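Risk register update: the risk that structure generation would not scale has been downgraded. Supporting records follow, first protein first.
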Amino acid sequence: MTVIEAPIAVPRLVAQNISMFMCPACGGALEVNAPESRLGCQGCGHVYAIDDGIPRLFWPTESPGAKDVTDIVKAFYEETPFPNYDDLDSPERLRAKAEQGLFARLLNEEIAHGSRVLEAGCGTGQLSNYLGLTWGRTVFGADVCINSLTLANRFKQAHDVGGVTFLQMNLFRPAFRPETFDVVVSNGVLHHTGDPRGGFVSILRCLRPGGHVIIGLYNTYARLTNDARRLVFRLTGDRLTFLDPRLRRVALNAGRRRAWFMDQYKHPHESKHTFDEVLRWFDQSGVDFVASIPRCGATESFSPAERLFAPRARGSAFDRLVVQLGMLLSGGREGGFFTMIGRKKA
């Protein structure tokens, strides 16, 4: 493979992997325009700027009749990036924080050497930066919000995280060629779009056959607890925040408290979904169910030694209902969030 020589302004991973990219406007091939430090389309001629090391590859959805909430969600996260990097001043601290949450550590263990990974809707890029710390993989973190991407890129540059690059992109208009990635992650993103299923189908195109897709969504049942707290906060002028278990944690500083509160209770748009709904997405899109967090089986528990890509049973409809009601009765921990993992059929 010929490595394209490019100035510092063009991220190294973009220059080395330019064949992975396509113009989000017309689907044409992109090329590095070295003198101007830009990316240009060989088809329609559109030129994309690279500002502070972040390629601006955003293109609007342009879907007449579809509910596009991109602008209001983008504006929300420009003002309140989530999560922030307070107290994360080194790769070691980022690694420690990520592995405390279990999911990131288990995902890191599953991703094979040499894999290409896309995080669609990376926010401030903490997961992408964490995955990029491991040598031998190529990670791209994409988001619509420049403030969030700037935080992500500052950490990457400050600590020379060589395995990751960040770019601005609309997940409904991907800037990557179909079947490019081995793993596609979209955690806590699709429920903030106007068309969650359409967003899933869009990012799935970027995944190669046999690759794994991971999506995290708010659950219809478990999120009811958050809805009740949101109503109480609105009626009391945002007092009684101790009702949220996460906000009762002494270790959280003011920045983290505000970021969590805003994301959970002041977000301008969210949708809620069930296990069965996402299983239908998988079935209709040629994706085999692999696993879920929590498990789909009513009597099964999630282990710290779990293999995320090891196929599990999807359970019965009754099992899945019991699991979701259990999430509700537990108080909708972590915002009533669940994760589904699938494997794209060959």
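Supporting record for the second protein:
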Amino acid sequence: MGFPSLEYMDADIVLDGGIGGFAVAKTAYFLNTKYLFWRPHTDRDMVPLDPSKRHAINQDAEVQIIAWAGALTCSGQMFQGRLTSP
């Protein structure tokens, strides 16, 4: 449903950038997501910034601005990788 990927030994391989993309040539990055975690801030975990909602003029819709702050942390940096070619 999302974007095309390959699978090798139960690991997804995703093309970053493609033609006209911004990925560095001859470099591959490997992320082990078992050791990556989102750590939200206690005061900014999907909280509304403004208590009132915004209403559209020409449609039946309302929008509320929410805020999130936090960090992406890694508990096993030795299990991540980068492969480069000369």
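The first strand starts at residue 6 and ends at 8. On this basis the risk owner (M.S.) recommends closing the item.
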